């Protein structure tokens, strides 16, 4: 069909676009099937189209031209399956096949033109033919039999034309074949007259459920009740839905969970099978420029030979770096992005992880790359198919299929084993069929790939069930009709019953109606679809002889079937999902242990049963043990294995610990990480700003310091190191998107303003930068901050962004400066609760160990948070530029704590109205909450030591409880916590926040002196 369309494309009026869309080809094939089965003559169709104007005429001319080309292109001797019935109809009349035979035809609502021609041929032989149709005679009036009556009359006319005697026999259901209730349903379900109420029904139910899954659970419970209470066999039961796609997956899994054996009347979609998904997704990789979804759909069939752990590692890496496109996937050089993102990881771990990523990439890429190259080299379809076959052998697919078949058989999964055994034959059949049709004709990969996928999609796979005693399940039009005693009808909503479907093909309902008026009798005419729908509803409702259960989802509008049953019988809508779950052990267990609504009698009864019977005793005990478990504590040995005997930590880890012990355990104990992309997020922006400020300030020092530089010099230095950062850290923007480059350019512009702001601060300060990125660690510039006591040793490693110093006499006054790209305030209340102690910790470490480095007695002068970001000021549109600049300066004021010493204050900022330090100057000296005496700094030192020892004791003791801090709804440890899903923090279950209050400075100092810092639980 593809070749036929391509051959006449230049002559088409409507369907002129290339046919690479498989839905277009599928529509063409469907129309061709319908025309063939309906006996549409292409010459007649073309003649009719020539007299038409408008879109329909153009469509029909195109269709007839394409189909004529299709028929002409078929190789001589190659039989089209659609013509088999036509050939049978031509020859059977002259055959002796029917001599002396009685022929019975059953299970049809109506016949296609081809089928009618076959029956006519049989009539010609004089065979004894019996056709069974469900209807009310040749001239009845009930609408559900309209199509079958029409069929019966047509057969009668055919017999008359042949001069064959015919009779109509009324085969009523034998007495006792149906229960009285089911017989009344059969007689009255489509009746327009109001039926006389039959009284309360015992064998008919109407159920409602809160969801599709719950509806399926109730159906499983009903099936088990039919078997256990009323002694039916599973094969006596059918579970049917009109909208089968909505119910199939849920019903099959739930029946398995309830232990109900089932046999589906529907054939599986072959493209959903892992083997076919592998082939389709491999072809999609080549067709989609290595799109992420296709690559990992291919890998996650688990049939490629790449191990699962390596696939997960590869996917995390690809997602982190947003790797897209053939160029990146298939390039010769290995990927070199840091697996941890922009933040540089430990070198050894970095290389090891990167090597695993590149090995997994190679194992994935090389077979696909060779497949793509081979398909490009081979111009014809046969060559491309050989390339695909070689690819499947290269990845070991035949061997893996054989292994899976053996494994399924050993596990007793006979049906799964049979499916896998057939799959390879289907693949090779599809290849041979495609090669036979397309052969060596040149075809581009972009055309071949969707065509071969379409060929695969036309196959179906079904197997014979390993046992016969099974519940029949399936769509209303496919499930078996005979021998059903109990019927469960799902999804009885107004939308699904009757299910009106408009034509989805290239011929609309109006087009079909017009063709029918011209004498072209199409099988998919609109009135035929509705008639079939009504007949299917009637046939379904009457297939069962004894019992009927109808259900639908609450919120859906019920079908006329529901209202008619309620009219006929005194039954209300009901359904108890808890009762249904008591029908099988596993659902009953889940019901018993679920944290459901109080007062559920079935749940209470289920729990009592499990306790008394001893069934699943161990599993129930395990659930109780789990229910009693809290996040609890680690054993001392487990804590030591995770954290070592001596606690080596960092200031940021201390902050995390006192924010939430459980989050600390997840991040630094288990080292759990959430998937995320390597982006210009807060940590990376911070890295860039630290790098920039450190290097710019260091370069400025030999020429008088940053405060001595002018604006032009500051900007030039900033741009120099921004460019170096791009080259050294970001590999010259290699493989970065245009958006990334744009965002970085904006960040660089903001950095210039920040450097200018810092230069302006240092111009009016006697404090000068002494160190940048000062390293506190074993082997670093300074030893780690260390505190010991009660058998616990805590060492705090880390880096200080900047250390400034000012000498007065023989003493060196030091302040620690921390750059913050986000908003950060200094709060004594936080310090009292173990938060915000980072800079103070390093300040006191310098106080104790700084003499050796700076050759002078060190006095703590303070700590400051310096904003390493530009600020957005909220203001009126009418604000003056001068006032706007003052507001901006106010927003850039540093936060922190400085020594309450007038000379120190003046040395920090020689100004009558300080812009940068967090104090105000009055006649009698400095004022503000950001001042502290040396004695108060001493109190802070003792408090921080106690805090670190407390942390050490709790870590050694295995504390991992979730007691996150809470200041407000917008400021608490659970907001934006990446471990929230793992934590399941819930105050209703006994979890509690550490509720922290904001205290006035005097009270905060008192709490620090007392060592109070636990918050209120």
Describe the structure.
With 1017 residues, this protein is an alpha/beta fold. It contains 39 helices and 24 strands. Strands 12, 13, 14, 15, 16, 17, 18 and 21 form an eight-stranded mixed β-sheet that branches. Strands 5-8-4-9-10-3-11 form a seven-stranded parallel β-sheet, with helices on both faces. Helix 6 runs parallel beside helix 7, helix 9 packs across helix 10 and helix 11 (274-287) runs antiparallel to helix 19 (445-457). The longest helix is centred in the middle third of the chain and has 31 residues, at 347-377. The protein is elongated, with a radius of gyration of 40 Å.
N- to C-terminal distance: 74 Å
Computed structural class: alpha/beta
Count of β-strands:
24
The helicity comes to: 40-55%
**Tally of alpha and pi helices:** 39
Shape: elongated
Mean pLDDT: 84
Radius of gyration: 40 Å
> Uncertain regions: pLDDT < 50 for 5+ in a row?
1013-1017
Proportion in β-strands: 5-15%
- Main sheet makeup: 8 strands, mixed
Strand-helix topology:
Elements: H1 2-8, H2 22-37, H3 42-50, H4 54-73, H5 84-92, E1 102-105, H6 113-125, E2 128-131, H7 146-162, H8 180-188, E3 204-209, H9 212-230, E4 237-241, H10 244-258, E5 262-264, E6 268-269, H11 274-287, H12 292-299, H13 308-320, H14 325-330, H15 347-377, H16 381-394, H17 397-410, H18 414-438, H19 445-457, E7 460-461, E8 471-475, E9 486-490, H20 509-517, H21 526-541, E10 547-553, H22 560-568, E11 573-574, H23 577-581, H24 585-593, H25 601-613, H26 617-628, H27 636-643, E12 647-650, H28 651-659, H29 661-669, H30 682-700, H31 711-728, H32 738-763, E13 768-776, E14 785-789, E15 792-808, E16 811-820, H33 828-832, H34 838-854, E17 857-867, H35 881-891, E18 895-899, H36 902-908, E19 920-922, E20 925-927, E21 931-932, H37 934-956, E22 965-968, E23 971-972, H38 980-983, E24 994-995, H39 1001-1010
Parallel strand pairs: 1-2, 3-10, 3-11, 4-8, 4-9, 5-8, 9-10, 12-15, 16-17, 18-21, 22-24
Antiparallel strand pairs: 6-7, 13-15, 14-15, 15-16, 17-18, 19-20, 22-23
Helix pairs in contact: 1-4, 3-4, 5-6, 6-7, 9-10, 11-12, 11-19, 13-15, 15-16, 17-18, 24-25, 28-29, 30-31, 31-32
């Amino acid at each position: 069909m593809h070749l036929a369309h391509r051959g006449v494309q230049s002559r088409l009026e409507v369907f002129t676009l290339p046919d690479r869309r498989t839905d277009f080809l599928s529509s063409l094939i469907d129309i061709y099937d319908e025309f063939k089965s309906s006996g549409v003559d292409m010459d007649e169709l073309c003649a009719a189209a020539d007299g038409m104007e408008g879109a329909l005429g153009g469509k029909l001319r195109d269709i007839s031209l394409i189909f004529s080309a299709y028929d002409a292109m078929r190789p001589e001797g190659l039989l089209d399956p659609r013509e088999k019935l036509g050939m049978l109809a031509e020859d059977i009349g002259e055959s002796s096949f029917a001599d002396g035979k009685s022929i019975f035809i059953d299970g049809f609502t109506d016949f296609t033109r081809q089928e009618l021609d076959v029956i006519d041929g049989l009539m010609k032989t004089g065979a004894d033919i019996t056709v069974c149709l469900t209807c009310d005679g040749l001239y009845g009036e009930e609408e559900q039999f309209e199509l079958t009556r029409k069929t019966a009359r047509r057969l009668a006319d055919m017999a008359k034309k042949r001069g064959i005697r015919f009779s109509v026999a009324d085969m009523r259901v034998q007495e006792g074949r149906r229960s009285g209730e089911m017989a009344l349903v059969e007689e009255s379900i489509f009746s327009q007259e109001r039926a006389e109420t039959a009284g309360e029904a015992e064998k008919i139910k109407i159920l409602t459920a809160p969801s599709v899954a719950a509806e399926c659970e109730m159906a499983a419970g009903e099936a088990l009740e039919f078997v256990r209470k009323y002694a039916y066999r599973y094969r006596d039961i059918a579970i049917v839905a009109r909208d089968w796609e909505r119910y199939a997956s849920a019903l099959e899994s739930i029946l398995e969970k309830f232990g109900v054996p089932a046999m589906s009347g529907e054939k599986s979609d072959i493209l959903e099978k892992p083997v076919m998904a592998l082939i389709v997704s491999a072809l999609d990789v080549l067709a989609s420029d290595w799109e992420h979804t296709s690559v990992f759909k291919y890998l996650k069939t688990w049939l490629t030979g790449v191990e699962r752990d390596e696939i997960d590692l590869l996917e995390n890496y690809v997602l982190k770096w947003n790797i897209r496109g053939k160029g990146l996937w298939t390039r010769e050089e290995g990927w070199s992005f840091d697996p941890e993102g922009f933040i540089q990881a430990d070198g050894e771990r970095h290389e090891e992880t990167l090597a695993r990523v590149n090995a997994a990439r190679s194992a994935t890429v090389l077979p696909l790359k060779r497949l793509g190259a081979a398909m490009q080299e081979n111009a014809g379809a046969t060559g491309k198919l050989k390339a695909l076959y070689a690819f499947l052998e290269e990845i070991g697919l035949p061997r893996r299929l054989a292994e899976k078949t053996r494994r399924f058989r050993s596990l007793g999964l006979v049906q799964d084993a049979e499916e896998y055994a057939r799959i390879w034959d289907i693949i090779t059949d599809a290849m041979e069929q495609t090669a036979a049709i397309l052969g060596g004709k040149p075809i581009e990969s972009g055309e071949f790939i969707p065509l071969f996928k379409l060929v695969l999609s036309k196959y179906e796979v079904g197997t014979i069930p390993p046992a016969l005693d099974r519940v029949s399940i399936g769509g209303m039009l496919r499930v078996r009709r005979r021998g059903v005693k109990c019927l469960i009808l799902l999804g009885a909503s107004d939308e699904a019953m009757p299910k009106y479907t408009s034509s989805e093909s290239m011929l609309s309902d109006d087009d079909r109606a017009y063709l029918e008026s011209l004498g072209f009798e199409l099988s998919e005419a609109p009135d035929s679809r509705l008639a079939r729908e009504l007949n299917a509803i009637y046939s379904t409702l009457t297939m069962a002889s004894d019992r009927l259960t109808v259900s639908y989802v609450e919120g859906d509008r019920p079908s006329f079937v529901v209202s008619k049953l309620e009219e006929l019988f005194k039954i209300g809508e009901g359904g108890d999902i808890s009762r249904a779950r008591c029908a099988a052990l596993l659902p009953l267990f889940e019901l018993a242990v679920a944290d459901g609504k109080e007062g559920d009698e079935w749940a209470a009864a289920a729990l009592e049963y499990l306790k008394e019977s001893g069934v699943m005793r161990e599993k129930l005990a395990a659930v109780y043990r789990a229910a009693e478990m809290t996040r609890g504590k680690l054993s001392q040995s487990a804590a030591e294995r995770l954290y070592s005997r001596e606690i080596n930590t960092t200031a940021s880890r201390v902050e995390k610990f006192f924010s939430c012990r459980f989050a600390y355990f997840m991040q630094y104990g288990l080292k759990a990480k959430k998937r995320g992309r390597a982006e210009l997020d807060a940590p990376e922006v911070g890295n860039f700003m630290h790098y920039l400020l450190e290097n710019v300030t260091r370069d400025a020092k030999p020429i008088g310091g940053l405060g001595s530089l002018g604006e032009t010099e500051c900007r030039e230095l900033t741009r120099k190191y921004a460019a170096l950062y791009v080259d050294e850290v970001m590999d010259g923007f290699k493989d970065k998107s245009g958006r990334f480059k744009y965002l970085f350019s904006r960040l660089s512009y903001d950095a210039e303003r920040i450097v200018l702001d810092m230069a302006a601060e240092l111009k009016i300060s006697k404090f000068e930068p002494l160190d940048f990125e000062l390293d506190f660690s074993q082997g670093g510039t300074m030893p780690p901050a260390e505190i010991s006591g009660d058998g616990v040793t805590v060492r705090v490693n880390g880096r200080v962004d900047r250390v400034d110093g000012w000498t007065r006499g023989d003493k060196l006054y030091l302040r620690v400066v921390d750059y913050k790209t986000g908003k950060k305030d200094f709060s004594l209340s936080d310090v009292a609760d173990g938060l915000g102690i980072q800079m103070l910790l390093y300040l006191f470490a310098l106080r104790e160990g700084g003499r050796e480095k700076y050759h002078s007695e060190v006095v703590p002068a303070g700590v400051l948070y310096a904003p390493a970001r530009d600020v957005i000021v909220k203001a009126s549109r009418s604000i003056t530029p001068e006032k706007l600049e003052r507001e901006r300066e106010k927003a850039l004021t540093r936060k922190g704590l400085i020594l309450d010493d007038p000379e120190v204050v003046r040395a920090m900022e020689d100004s009558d109205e300080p812009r940068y330090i967090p104090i105000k100057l009055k006649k009698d000296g400095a004022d503000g909450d950001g001042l502290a005496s040396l004695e108060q700094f001493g109190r802070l030192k003792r408090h921080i030591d106690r805090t670190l020892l407390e942390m050490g004791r709790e870590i050694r003791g295995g504390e991992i409880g979730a007691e996150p801090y809470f200041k407000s709804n917008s400021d608490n440890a659970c907001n934006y916590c990446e471990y929230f899903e793992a934590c399941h923090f819930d105050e209703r279950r006994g979890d509690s926040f550490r509720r922290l209050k904001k205290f006035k400075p005097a009270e905060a100092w008192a709490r620090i002196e007392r060592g109070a810092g636990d918050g209120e639980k």
